[in-house]
Structures are given as structure tokens and as C-alpha cells.
Write a structure and sequence with these properties.
Layout: H1 17-28, E1 35-42, E2 52-53, H2 57-65, H3 71-80, H4 85-92, E3 99-103, E4 108-109, E5 116-121, H5 122-127, H6 129-152, E6 157-160, H7 169-182, E7 186-187, H8 190-196, H9 206-210, H10 215-225, E8 231-233, H11 239-255, E9 264-267, H12 272-285, E10 292-295, H13 301-309, E11 316-319, H14 321-324, E12 334-343, E13 346-349, E14 366-373, E15 379-386, E16 397-401, E17 404-411, E18 414-418, E19 420-425, E20 428-429, H15 436-447, E21 464-467, H16 469-481
Parallel strand pairs: 6-7, 6-11, 8-9, 9-10, 10-11, 15-21
Antiparallel strand pairs: 1-5, 1-12, 2-4, 3-5, 3-19, 12-13, 14-15, 14-18, 16-17, 19-20
């Protein structure tokens, strides 16, 4: 059946086929009501960074809230000829009844800690695997990359300019959303503004300048159209010999007589460090001290850092393809693993073994806490416990480096904040979705509570993510039981 672009998309079938074959098997073997617990976590921070940022929870909530199999879906699956009719009837009457916990969007997160936890009937918990990963992985990747770029800009404005280089139209819109969470202040994507309220910005392309007889005529026409918000693209021909002189002329001859000021000039090619310094001198010499300089052209956190080290006179950055695709490391390696099943009212831990050490999972139904120093307010470590366990705040907490257990830190005078919040209870949404601007503000505040050493681009301090003694003992016991 052809895809109807006029109809809203039903994303229920955006899953991996093996999720259906396994679920059919669970049903055929009478396991459909077995209560299972799955964790989503990731193993490696992109770009060798010190932390990642969780994003995409709102889209996951939207997916789960609208989860239902249409008659067309059931008909399609029936034609496959591999699913039991009773299982298809189960899907036709599907109603999500799982419990879901998640870390709030905008929260700094670290490898191997549960950021989404799903508990419920094995079929239901299994069927949402793809969308859990798809929703969280991509936006967390872009929010993390965007925050690196924003931190490199050292307080200067960063605009997300990646729509035309994103990997799809969904990526353009959701990437703009994630970049805003990471700290960008605007986007070129109008649909992201309409859907999410991310402020959309933009001025002109080189084609605007090329279509006029002269660069001055192009600038003048634009200034007359948008006198209160005029930014001119000055690199179509020659920044120093043509672009900046014509911009100054428009500022003096067109805008100032109208009672307006030229807002900015944008440089989109060439040696931005050199050109921005030359442009600044020329603008200041002409009395255009308030005119800002914006730079674009395949920027990322490393190029921006180098530009500022070289003394570039740039007031804001437009960052496109390298941020919207996270070009330097375009995969956020989140995974979704079974960690426990419920038997006779108790949770039985489950572990995945591997000869690749980093692929060994941490078993059991869990909770996640962030440990803050009461003296400084800074985050000290994250602490993973069993679900019914809390950090012993009335006693010193001994934290071990999980990769070098002989290293330990004793923490006193601390507070512990639970990071996993209820999202769905028995399928009912109980989470209040915050405004996007509040998520961005929260993200900035939480990153501010990390030590500067964790925020380095190169060789950041490795933040401790430790297991409680009970959880550590459970993991070691299962490792011994399953070793060969």
C-alpha cells in the first residue's frame, strides 16, 4: 500500500521485525503476561567527551501515548504468514500497560547507567525497543554535540543551521529541537519553530546578491525591506574589497537616514579569523561599532575554539552539518537490554555475558542517584542501586572506580537526588511535559553543577558511576554462575 503523505503517520509499526517474531513466540508459549524489566543505557560518550545530554523523551512519550495497531497494520502482518492468529488478535486489542521511568531531558548522563527503565508484560516491553532507542539516541547525540559547540563559543550566540544537511526531514526538525536543548539559541528550520517554538532566524543567500546588478543594489534592496533587522552576507564576491565596503555604505546611506542601524554582517567562507579581524577594523573605522559579525561555513567546536584562540572578531556562529549530523561521531550507542523478570513476586536478575567486557550488562531492577557535595553543590558521582535501595546519606559513602576497583573515594556531607522519574504508571501518563525553554535552562543549570574537569574536550576527567554493594554483589554472583 503506498504511503499517504496527507495522513498523519502511525509509528506503531516502526519496530524491528524480530520484536514481532519474539513477541509471537512469547504469546505462543504462554509468556505474554510475564513481567520483565528492560534498561536503556549507552556505553560510550561521543567524541571522547566527559558527559552526554539526554534528549528525546517527549517524542518517546508521544509514541507510547498513541501506540495502537490499526486494521491495516494487522492485515499487513497477517499477509506475512508467520504470526499466529491469536497473537494478531492480541495486537488488534493492544493497550499499553507498562511502567516507565526516565531521566529528565537536559540531564547530563554517563555510560552504563539506566536512563530509561521499562517494566511490564514482556511483549509490550519488547515491542517498544526500537522507538525507545530511536527517540533517545538521535536527540541525545545532537544535544550533546550542540552543547560542545556552545561551550566552545564561550558565551557567543550559536545558531543551528543544519536543516539542508540533516539525514532526513525528521532529523532536521528534531535535530533543531535537540540543539536548542544543548544550548543553541535559534535555528534556520521554520518547522522546528512552528512545532517546538525554537526561534527561527535567517537572512539571505548568495543567490540574493547574485540576482542584482551589483552587490550594493542587493544590500540596499534588502535593507529597505528589513531595516530593523538587517544582516548582510558579505562574502559573495570579496569580503574586504567589496562586501564590507558595500555594507558600510548601506549602513550610512540607507539605514541611518531611516533611523536604523545595520545589525550584522555574515562571513560564510574564507579565512574567518583573518577576515573577521579585517572586517571589525573597517566597521569600527567607519563608526559602525555596533554591527555584529556572524560566521558560518562547516564549523564545529574545534574550529570555533581555534578561531577564538586566533583572536577572531566573531560575535555569533551559525553551525550546520557538523552539528546536525554529529559528523565527528554520528552514532549514539544506546542499547536496550533485559535486566530482570518477576517470579513469585520477586525480581530475578538477568545478565548478558560477553567476551567483550564493556558489553556485559548490569542485572536487576534498578534506580539511579546523583551524589552532590553539600559544601559545593557540585556533582561528585552517580550511584546505581537496586530498585528498593537508597544511598546511605546518614553514613559515609564509599565510591569505587568501576574500571579500577582499587581506587576509591569516601564521600561525606552529601545529598543524593533520584534521577529516574515516573513517566507512565500501568500505561497512564503521569509525567508533566516541561516547556522546551525550561528544558534548555535546566540543562544549563545541571551542566553548571559538573566540575570543569569533566567538561574538557580533550581527556576529560572520568566521572564515577558506581554500583551499590548489593548491586555489585548481584552482578559478581551472576558472572560466576555463568562463567565457563
Amino acid at each position: 500500500m503506498p504511503f499517504d503523505v496527507k495522513q498523519p503517520r502511525n509509528l506503531t509499526m516502526l519496530l524491528d521485525f524480530y520484536e514481532l517474531t519474539m513477541s509471537n513466540g512469547y504469546f505462543a508459549n504462554g509468556l505474554q503476561d510475564k513481567i520483565a524489566v528492560f534498561d536503556m543505557f549507552f556505553r560510550k560518550i561521543p567524541d571522547g567527551g566527559g558527559f552526554a545530554i539526554l534528549a528525546g523523551l517527549e517524542q518517546l512519550i508521544g509514541y507510547i501515548s498513541n501506540l495502537e495497531f490499526s486494521s491495516e497494520d494487522i492485515g499487513f502482518l497477517r499477509e506475512k504468514g508467520v504470526f499466529d492468529e491469536a497473537f494478531l488478535t492480541y495486537l488488534q486489542n493492544f493497550r499499553f500497560v507498562c511502567d516507565v521511568w526516565a531521566v529528565k531531558e537536559g540531564t547530563p548522563i554517563f555510560p552504563n547507567e539506566p536512563v530509561v527503565v521499562v517494566r511490564g508484560p514482556i511483549i509490550q516491553a519488547q515491542l517498544i525497543e526500537t522507538m525507545v532507542l530511536l527517540s533517545i539516541n538521535y536527540q541525545s547525540l545532537i544535544a550533546t554535540k550542540a552543547n560542545r559547540v556552545v561551550r566552545a563559543a564561550q558565551g557567543r550566540s550559536v545558531m543551528e543551521f543544519g536543516s539542508r544537511r540533516a539525514q532526513s526531514y525528521d532529523a532536521a526538525v528534531l535535530g533543531a529541537r535537540a540543539a536548542f536543548i544543548g544550548g543553541c539559541d535559534s535555528t534556520a528550520c521554520v518547522l522546528a519553530d512552528r512545532h517546538f517554538g525554537v526561534p527561527s532566524v535567517g537572512t539571505m543567500a548568495h543567490s540574493w546578491v547574485q540576482i542584482y546588478e551589483s552587490e550594493f543594489d542587493a544590500f540596499k534592496s534588502y535593507a529597505l525591506l528589513y531595516p530593523a533587522n538587517c544582516t548582510l552576507l558579505v562574502d559573495t564576491y570579496n569580503v574586504v574589497k567589496s562586501g564590507i565596503p558595500n555594507a558600510i555604505r548601506v549602513a550610512k546611506e540607507v539605514l541611518e537616514p531611516m533611523g536604523h542601524q545595520l545589525k550584522a554582517v555574515r562571513i560564510d567562507s574564507g579565512d574567518i579569523a583573518y577576515l573577521s579581524k579585517k572586517a571589525r577594523k573597517m566597521l569600527d573605522a567607519a563608526g559602525c561599532h555596533g554591527v555584529k559579525i556572524t560566521a558560518s561555513n562547516s564549523l564545529d567546536e574545534y574550529i570555533i575554539t581555534d578561531l577564538l584562540i586566533q583572536g577572531a572578531k566573531v560575535d555569533s556562529f551559525g553551525v550546520g552539518e557538523k552539528m546536525i549530523t554529529s559528523k565527528s561521531e554520528p552514532v549514539f550507542g544506546g542499547v536496550y537490554k533485559l535486566v530482570a523478570i518477576r517470579e513469585k513476586g520477586e525480581y530475578k536478575p538477568k545478565i548478558k555475558m560477553s567476551e567483550t567486557i564493556e558489553k556485559i550488562t548490569t542485572p536487576q531492577f534498578k534506580n539511579l542517584y546523583r551524589i552532590f557535595s553539600s559544601e559545593t553543590g557540585q556533582a561528585v558521582a552517580d550511584y546505581i542501586t537496586t530498585a528498593n535501595e537508597e544511598p546511605p546519606t546518614d553514613n559515609p559513602l564509599v565510591l569505587f572506580d568501576p574500571n579500577a576497583v582499587w581506587k576509591k573515594k569516601v564521600v561525606t556531607n552529601y545529598t543524593a537526588e533520584c534521577l529516574l522519574e515516573p513517566v507512565f504508571e500501568k500505561g497512564r501518563l503521569v509525567y508533566n511535559l516541561p516547556r522546551l525553554e525550561d528544558i534548555q535552562a535546566y540543562c544549563g543549570e545541571q551542566i553548571g553543577r559538573l566540575w570543569d574537569e569533566v567538561k574538557r574536550f580533550e581527556h576529560p576527567h572520568r566521572y564515577y558511576v558506581d554500583l551499590s554493594q548489593r548491586l555489585y554483589d548481584t552482578k559478581q554472583s551472576l558472572l560466576m554462575q555463568n562463567s565457563f
